[in-house]
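Q: For a teaching handout, I want to show students what a protein-ligand complex looks like in token form. Below are the inputs, and the small molecule is NDP. Please produce the holo structure.
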Amino acid sequence: MARVAIVTGGTRGIGEAISIALKNAGYTVAATYGGNDEAAAAFKEANGINVYKWDCGDAKSCADGIAQVTADLGDVDIVVNNAGITRDGMLHKMTAENWNDVIRTNLDSVFYMTKPVIEGMRERGFGRIISISSINGRKGQMGQANYSAAKAGLLGFTKALAQEGARKGITANVIAPGYINTEMVAAVPEKVLESIVGQIPVGRLGEAAEIARCVVFLASDDAGFITGACLDANGGQYMAS
Ligand code: NDP
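A: Here is the structure, written as tokens, with NDP included.
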């Protein structure tokens, strides 16, 4: 039977590419989203992938949503924690609301999405937890103290979980994309975007499909010896030691 994968924020942007790539690789995919019904319906229509709407930053919604996916599609083998938001601003101007929204959606969600599936993965002896961080969680970014903190937090979570799951066939890994050609990046002012591209050694933005291919690899049996790792996919913009 095909393995079941949940992709949070799997209906748009990078998540959409991940959902499609996993489907093409033979997985049964559930793509979640937060509020954009129109985009989700278009995605479902175009790709024939099941979509589910819930707030990934809410514990009960995640537990209920995962229970529904399990009832519909079977036990969850792979979780791709992709959903994310930005609420940028210099710290001296950042509101507590903007801090909390970003931590809740980008970091708390990873606990809420992983906790309900981890026991079953341990029992079945297989699991893949793949979380989408960011170059800005690796190096920090002015105006993104909230986002950088959340994205860096994924690395600590992943390294701890990798140790806990290692003997149970569960791997936990992070992918840290650089700037990818998506709506999130299109919202950046043109001048800022030009200067960002100028800092990318390969001389272009990344494509969502390039991140999706990293996910497909890390989800596979072939990647069973890779755990607690961070795969930087950033065109050479930041080379962590
Ligand atoms: P998009 O804004 O294009 O898509 C975000 C997705 O997450 C949407 O499907 C959205 O749902 C969903 N989402 C947002 N909030 C919630 C929520 N509370 N509950 C459930 N779903 C939610 O993002 P990108 O594709 O650009 O980014 C995807 C991931 O990659 C993010 O984690 C981002 O931080 C990270 N990243 C992106 C980079 C880039 O260059 N774009 C670079 C580095 C990292 P809905 O459609 O309903 O709004």
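A: Two things your students might notice: The mean pLDDT is 97. Strands lie at 4-7, 28-33, 50-53, 76-81, 127-132, 170-177, 230-233.
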